[in-house]
Amino acid sequence: MLTRALPCRTVLGATALLAALACLPPTVVSHRSGLMDYLYPKNKTAPAPNPSGARLQLPLRVGIAFVPTPGGSGQNALLPAGSEKPLLDILKDTFKDKPWVKEIRVIPSTYLTPQGGFDNLDQVRSLYGVNVVALVSVDQIQYTNPKWYSIAYLSIVGAYVLPGDANDTRTLIDAAVFDVPTRTFLLRAPGQSNVKGSSTAINVHARLREDSAKGLELAMKDLAGNLEKEVEGFKADVATGGREEVDVATKEGVSLHDLPPDPSAPNRRGGTFGGAEALLGLVLAASAVIRRKRA
Amino acid sequence: MNPWVLARGAVSQPWRLWTCHALHFGWKHALFNLIALLVPFALLRPRAWPGLAAALLVLAPLLSLALLPGLGEAQYRGASGLACAAWALTGVQLARDRTSRLEGALLLGGLGLKVLLETFGGTSVLPSEPGWLSLPAAHQWGMALGLAFSPILAWLPGRTKDLPRG
């Protein structure tokens, strides 16, 4: 009796295990650094806009930093030690040659206190001697789904050789630029990426770390492109009076509000006589009149 | 969009065909165009002024209609197209008269040189003010319309033989 029941129990047990593995929920790992938590830790409501507005003097000294996360260090850190600078350098390299930029300083997030608010940001701004600060916040979620053949992990060997876990890393990076002394929000831009892959059960954590780093790099590159477009839009908005609370002064001290629109703008055409042409016409008319009067 | 400038849709707002020539991108733009527009009047007898003014009133919408297809999303403003038409009209009339042939030739020559430089040099004799781009087509069309309409001016009030001042 016992010898007959054993195969039946084995089959039932294996089936139940397979079913259990198949129904396993995906493992989700989430990392998030909140801009609002950092800047307005005590505020329940949105802060009122600064009535005095901001006046930016070109060229700008710009600071860029990741928003610090509470308890975000050691094993739980979204950005491992040493990875911040290469990521922020992507932004720096995109903007360092722009005529409106004098200098871009990378500020380590360790200089920022979690929930430090504008007071903390102002200290760092003074320390680095920058006019405006771009705060980069990150939201990254990693899903790990066991594939159907992850049952082979039970064989122990399978956990080493079969890539039975499907990994999905979604990264959203947001950069918000502030004029710190006046606490005026200037502009923002997003960057995103989605990295997919698979790994063995033994290698899953290492693979997720690789995907995380790759996702951050791709999202940062996306952010750099988007930020470039947003800056152009911001300049146009300021020049056309769309951002009344913000003024930008050129190197010569002339406000963008007072400058005529971009001469390369293709939508303004005018028929014109140059001053010299008009003057020549006047001379012609005057000489003709004088000559006839003499005649 | 300014309701007086020439832009897409101006046909359904026909006043734009006239008003765009009176609008400018700044006082310098307006001043030089006004001077250029007054030069032909200064070269003509006062009795010929109504004829020239009437011709320009007729030419203004025609010039606008000629410019409209090439404008795309852009807007146009400025009196220089009309000034070119006035220079061409007056130049031809003056050149017909022996006593004013030199003025006529200089007026037409100056206009021709301007249009040639803009057409083949890609720019005005003097660059336009920042904030907008010069539209050489306005001057080309203005000159062409002026030359085409010069025979009509001959029998408008202040006929050809009366035109030259003196």
Can you tell me the CATH class of chain B? Answer: Mainly Alpha
Mean pLDDT of chain B: 82
Q: How many angstroms does the end-to-end distance of chain A come to? A: 142 Å
Proportion in helices of chain B: 55-70%
Write down the secondary-structure element order of chain B: HHHEHHEH
Strand content of chain B: under 5%
Class derived from helix and strand content of chain B: mainly alpha
What order do the helices and strands of chain A follow? HEHEEHEHEHEEHEEH
Q: What is the name of the CATH topology of chain B?
A: Rhomboid-like fold
Supply the number of helical segments of chain B.
6
Oligomer: heterodimer
Largest sheet of chain A: 6 strands, mixed
Number of domains of chain B: 1
Average residue pLDDT of chain A:
79
Integer-rounded radius of gyration of chain B:
16 Å
State the distance separating the first and last CA atoms of chain B.
Answer: 46 Å
Fraction of residues in β-strands of chain A:
25-35%
Task: Provide the domain count of chain A.
Answer: 1
Notes on the protein architecture:
The complex is a heterodimer of chains A (295) and B (166). Chain A has 7 helices and 9 strands, in the order αβαββαβαβαββαββα. Helix content of chain A is 38%, strand content 26%. Chain A has one domain. In chain A, strand 3 (60-66), helix 3 and strand 4 form a beta-alpha-beta unit. In chain A, the strands form 2 sheets. In chain A, strands 1, 3, 4, 5, 6 and 7 form a 6-stranded mixed β-sheet that branches. Chain A has 295 residues and is an alpha/beta fold. In chain A, helix 3 runs parallel beside helix 6. The mean pLDDT of chain A is 79. Chain B has 166 residues and is mainly alpha-helical. Chain B has a single domain, classed as Rhomboid-like fold. Helices cover 60% and strands 3% of the residues of chain B. Chain B has helices at 16-19, 27-43, 49-71, 80-96, 101-121, 136-153; strands at 75-77, 133-134. Chain B is globular, with a radius of gyration of 16 Å. The interface between A and B is large, with 31 and 54 residues.
